Amino acid sequence: MHCLCVLRSTLCCQMPTSTYRMLLQTKAVPVQIIKRDLTAKVKNQKLNQNIRRVDRRNAAYLLRHTTWKDLVELYEIAKPFRKWIFLGTSFMVVSSGIFLIIPRILGKLIDQFDSNTGVQKAEEVFTMKIAKYFKEQPMSLVGLLAIGALATAAKVYCLQIAGVNIVGSLRKMVYSSIIRQDMTFFDKNMVGEIGSRHAADTVIVGYSVSSSLRAGVRAVLVGVGSIGMMLMTSLELSTVSFLTAPIVMGIFKMFGRVQQQCTWQLQEVAADVNQTAIERMANMKTIRMLSAEQQSIDEYCKKGELVLDISKTEALAKGSLIGSFQFTGYSAFSSILFYGSHLINTGHITYGELSSFCLYAVLAAASLSNISGFYNEVMKGLGASSRLLELKNAQPIMNLNSGIKKTDITTSIQFENVSFAYAGRKKTLENISFDIPRGKITAVIGPSGSGKSSIANLMLRLYDPADGRVTVDGVDLRDLNATTWRHAIGTVGQEPVLFTCSIRENILMGTEHPEKVSQYELEEAAQLANALDFIQGFENGFETMVGEHGCKLSGGQKQRIAIARALISKPKIMILDEATSALDATSDYLIRMTLDNLLKNHNLTVLVIAHRLATMQQADQVVYVNRGRIEGQGTFDEMMKIQNSIVEQEARRRGIPMNEQMSRVNTPVARGFSLKF
Ligand SMILES: Nc1ncnc2c1ncn2[C@@H]1O[C@H](COP(=O)(O)OP(=O)(O)OP(=O)(O)O)[C@@H](O)[C@H]1O
Q: Main site of residence (predicted)?
């Protein structure tokens, strides 16, 4: 009967605020810790109340969070795999039927061996006939058991395949939806949270669909069948057995709930501990540089202690639950045997019937335990699938594939009175207007945090302006096909981001048709980026794996691969964000050479976020941004005339002699600048 312990641990579901409150009431875990976490959660919710966040309240175990619409949608996702579901269910009916009839036949077989027992009831004639047959042909009983086992194996296989396919489809749909979301979505939701939700919830749904649902349906079939057979075998014995039901339910309610709550909370805390560990391990270089090893260990251990505290409560509840079930189970079983032997003595039942009854009682108990487990798991699965469906159905504001397809510009890109703010932040850009003429280099300069990258973000249409508009040849960027537009732009960021794959895959990332890119084109892009020599120097050339975030390459090598990636599609427009991080002299020189060559290409329209004087000098126009406003705009020479300007400061820093006339000028002389230095 101890198999009635039904609560299974599942992966990483998250704890709802309501559960925190509930646990506070039950005092299942240290109150201070939960209070602290709860306060943090509430604060967090308040901070983000204006932001449409992914709902963190855990819907995993409450059906009310799952709507009929969700169920219909799940059915639609499962539809293509209905062949497997039908086959699996059919095998399940066969195997359950066989294993349900076996105890009855075994009972009759026992009675067959007992010469004192005769057939008493007409309805038992059929079973007795089968029993007689099996007595004469014992191998056929083995054969029947083998058929049952084969049907079980086939059922598991078919339903597993159906489950894996359903979850696979759901996972793909959710992932493609996440990938298509607006940048604002990722600003509002923590990537780790979305990632773990995507991973953990699909595991929960997978477990629920492939395992729990199968076990549950089988448990219902076998449970109902066994109880029916128990009633059929002996009404008196059934009454004794069912008397223990309320006691079992009471025990389950008492300890089961506490254990369940602890399990849920453990999953949340364990996910947090894992996240901390993974983050620290992924950034080992920084940890080492900061000598933060002990701090990381302490942090990990502190969180681990919370796991231990909750685990103790869980273990106590689990132990009490199993112990109580064992006590009740064995008591009930002993009562059946005692009362059963009395019934045999009084001639009410036979030995065979008592044996059958005992087997059915075990089957019924096991099935009932599975049904409660199945209920919890399916509820969790439904809740998790609802959250996944919410992610799947999240609609980005920017449709990536509709709009005018524009791959080049004929006149200019214009910022017209553009104001912009990131979600939950004050305005980053305020009423800025300037032109990026075709075939020219526009350098954006300004202090850190002034909004330079935000200008590039708007030009790439990663975000839309709050006011004003960005136009390309007079067409609002919002009317353009975002994918085609971004394909027309090559981007090299300040901090190159490489993916954990080969150099070839990194360079080809983002090309419209990677399979059509020839080796020659690949080498050409690498050559232009001054990367070919070092790539060919590697044993595996372009197939060299770059490690996590490109950790197996130097900063300069990463930067040059990023440049090659930007050039591979032969873009007409380039956005360059010059690296401010220190590179070694050779890398710095090579990258500068590469960018200089790019800037000399007069067919390119370039927006460069410049940090070097040389780059500013090459620009056709320089735009000075300060605190989100354009405070100066002109040629490099014109900008040099501005006292204390960033250009001048840069020149001084680099020890470049300043033109006398320039140093004397205190006010802007050209283009009616409005400067507020
Ligand atoms: N995704 C974001 N969400 C919220 N605020 C952001 C985001 N990105 C940038 N900001 C804020 O917007 C402001 C402008 O940032 P931006 O990156 O455009 O500056 P920048 O001039 O490029 O700085 P740097 O030269 O240091 O790269 C900063 O105050 C920054 O904190």
A: membrane
